[in-house]
Amino acid sequence: MSKALRGLSRAGWAALAWVWLCALLLCLPASARAQQLLAPGVYGFVDTVEYDSTRSMVRITGWCYDSQNQQLPKDFLVRIGDSEKRVAVPTRSKRDTVAVHFKEGHTIPLGFALELRYPRYLEGGPQPVTVIARFDDGARFNVNPSSPAAGQLTGPETPGRHWLIAAVVAVAIVVLLLPGATRLQRRMGAWIGSHRPAVAGSIGVLFLVLVGAGATGSSLELLLGRSDQGAPHTFLSADSAVTHLAGQPRGVRSDEWMVVAASALAQANHQPPFPVVNRNLGLDGENMMVIGMTGVPVLHISALARPATWGFFALPLDKALAWYWFFPLFACLLALWWFLEVLAPGRSGRNLALSLLFCLAPYAASWSHWPLYAVFFPSGAMAATLLMLQQRPGIRMGWLALALGWFLAGFALVLYPPWQITVATLYAMVLVAWLIGNRRQVRWSWQTPLAFALATALLAALLYFWWHDARDAIAAMRGTVYPGQRAALQGGDLSILVLLRGFGNADTLSNLQGGVFNESEFGSYFLLLLPIWFLCLRQIRAQGAQPWVLAACAAFSVFGVVFVVWGVPLVLSKAMFWHYVSSSRIDLSLALASLLVVALLGPARAAAPAAVLPAAPRTATVVLGLFSAALAALVLAGIPEDFHPGMTALFLWSMAAVAGLSAYWLVHGQVGHSIALTIVVYALAVFDFNPMGLAPARVALAEPVRGFVAGPAGADGIAKMRRVLVVLPSTSHAMTLAAAGVPVVDGVFYYPQPSVWRSMQLPASEQDTVNRYQHLTFVQEIMAAPATYRVVNPTPDSVRVLLDPRRFDFATTGAQVVTANAGVFEFRENPHLRLLGEHEGWAWYEVAAAAAR
């Protein structure tokens, strides 16, 4: 054979090649027959079944088509184990490898992707998976797996954290059931009552120790970087990083670390520091006195009423940041304890435990202690008011009056109406009820009206000076589309299940992933409303301590529930100023009302030990305990899986046991047991939510970045920073630069910056797009000429400028330097930009017009 092949002439080789080509052509019809159209019918297979543990989601892919009726499935039924769920809107895609078998199959999205939650309470391990396609004509088709692996799923086992929660709860219950538990609580309460100054002093010393160490639970490392991750931040020097100690930073708390804390740092690094209007934030600058919650440091007389910022004026930066973080926690703990001591004297141990319980709650942790700051001021004001009403003439009356005026001014400058209005409503009702019930104990002297006048004068003076320098910014905020012109609210937009979502916070606060709510929005309190209402009625009938105050607390909590679940007439909502209150922000005042009720449980004067009170009839006690346990179980089971993914039977029954026993002990008179068990649950929820680290002693630019940003030296020989525009979908890097004292174009603004929009010649028809509180970002997008930019609102509180990196004139924004991802090379085609250099993946450009100037 080989000889024959070697003997072939050139013509012979050509003939042989022709034969092979003919044979190949003869084979082509057989290949075509392998891909011929399938007979009309329903076809389909499941290709993959996967479980995403980070989102508690099952993802199923495959394809299905009814070629006879030329229709795709309208929806799917998915059975996992013995649980069946409907997926109404599958994600569809084209399947080229399958399309060849159907007429015009390349135009039909034959593929599907189904996403659904893994069924609650279904045990882990291998579970069979069945997929049924349903069509518009009512037909069903079992979509068989293409392989054994596509017909089953290995489900998740009960998470280890749920076993830990159950174990800790069980140990706590066993300890509280020990014979000596009640006696220990009684002794601790008595010791605290006889050493109140020492205890308060110890709390203050602990606060100062944390401040001295520069400790913070802020998620600032997302803004400044971490010292244990090499370079702390691409824009900052290494010593600007947070020293990480424990936990993980929470991106969801961006309004704390990226807005308020970043603005505070921007004030500290401004030249000169702590201005009323920070000229580094936007072309027009930003009035910093309109920032609410803890506020930011401003060298202004109104700063006297913003004690959380005092550390910036007197302490190194790391200590100031520690003061800034911990002040709301410790201040609320002491002020609330003081108020409870005045309202319910003789129960120091219980009052301190209740204050600790309130400050430890998931709601406080999930909102970076800001709710505590909002309660600190009115609690101190209530304590001062009640003491003034019982005080004999003397110098102490004057000090109480000054304290009252200061507390009220601080409360007004929190500038967050949903919390201010609801807490003020509760405390106003409590004050009126106290006056009615204690009218014989009120000591009205010639000094009393003078003291209240002094308090009013101090309040008016502080607020006048604040308003005088903030009124233009306030007017701009009130004129915005968001939040200035939001529709009036009247409640009725939350279910009772969501109102009582705090039953699940021991799991959700640190582990809520892939849910409809974020961790902060889902944070709440372990509310036992039914036992609280029962105890109010029981104590009022028994003429116990402060029956009028108890009635006020009960009336407030009932109104709060009605407002949240069913709503109230708009005219009533406006009359009470509750049209500014979102239903999701009422948790704070409801928990506070419940706390006041528990503080007042017992006889008119605390003759009995605080831990043990006269018990209700055993039948009522058992029934309320069982009912509370059942309610907690029903709430946890009834909350949609998209709200609380990852729920397990073990966790549900653990929290039901906590609710049942807490209610039982509360009604039975063992208040200390109930408080202690709730503290354990709160501690489980919050211990790893906020990180712990050491704040930096300074925030400064990295040297290469400083070289890009620095302008020519002035007459004093100091180079001023040029204004920077950061091209990025997030404001985080712009706020990092602002925190380091760099002027920026983009960032977070409480009211619009009109100069930039005038310079960019934004059409009048788009003014509402930018007239809002905003996270202002600039993002590149290639667009057809002549357009070079467009403005959109991805969310109500964000403004995004989409710009063409090749043609947009950055000089119209007021920017002198632009920085963007070094991988976006289109910026280098822009005639208005000149490349300065690159650093850590970021390219820095000088704006041509700015260079010419």
TrEMBL record:
Cross-referenced InterPro entries: DUF7654, DUF7657
Signal peptide: 1-34
Alphabetical keyword list: Membrane, Signal, Transmembrane, Transmembrane helix
Chain segments annotated as transmembrane: 162-178, 198-217, 322-340, 373-390, 397-415, 421-437, 449-467, 522-540, 547-568, 588-608, 620-640, 646-667, 674-694
UniProt entry tagged with the keyword Transmembrane helix: yes
Official protein name in the record: 4-amino-4-deoxy-L-arabinose transferase
Domain DUF7657 positions: 203-601
DUF7654 domain ranges (all copies): 725-847
